[in-house]
Sequence to fold (297 residues):
Amino acid sequence: MRAAAVFGLGCSAKDLKPFQSDKNCQRNNQATEWRIGMPAASEQADVVLLFGGDGTVHRHLEQLVRLGIPVLVVPAGSGNDFARALGLRSARDSLAAWWKFCTAAANVRRIDLGVIATRELGARYFCCVAGVGLDAEVARRANAFPRWLRGHGGYALSLLPAIFRFAPFPMKIRTRSHDEGKASGEKIEWIVRSDRPTMLAAFANTPVYGGGMRIAPQAKMDDGQLDVCVIGKMDPFKLACLFPTVTLASTWESEKWNISKPPASGSRPTRRSTSTLTANTCAVRQYRSECSRGRCG
Fold:
């Protein structure tokens, strides 16, 4: 077996050593050949171990999709929401998943990826949550903090000043009407889901983001849908009181929308399928076709 190790900020070959031990390192009685760095082609590796947090996963996501080989995330970042959604809360969990994978256990799981496409930037993948508005401002502020602080409440510290300074903006969200009776070439109908001054719109593939905020508690990575949470114009004091429920409660409501091709203008979050390793959970990524069915919950 050929394995590639990719290290994010603050990670090194020292973090790889537990995965290279003799008992963990063989699959089908074949010793593992290791390489450091992201493979350029799928012929160069059978699996990728990615050491880091959400930023590291996002940075390499496009290449991982191209490779289409299993990926095991080892959580080692300031935010590990993607790994957490897979049940990987520590390097020990990842090590257990690696051991199962090496013993030929069927812990490969197919999951979804979202896609954001604009005319200026083209298409970009996301695996957790794509946000517009307040959460983007919170992330900008939090990224200015030292790495250790971002991993220990940095997003929460950035939230309050952002709430009182952020102004709502006009936003319209439309989804395509899925009418199977329509003949090919007929005009596509669009349903307006939201058209109001907006503080935040989050398109969630995973339940959590921002270091543990449960923006969409019912979101699943393999249901072919994005959970959408929209917060309209609201008094800043009420919003400040509301946000603790995002981390403490599981009753925060969102809707499941199927997001597909957009109108001629603007940007579009879309949903695409992919794969993932689970057992104690790994993440495998394989590019799949765009989902065409969904429901609004």
About this structure: The first strand starts at residue 2 and ends at 7.
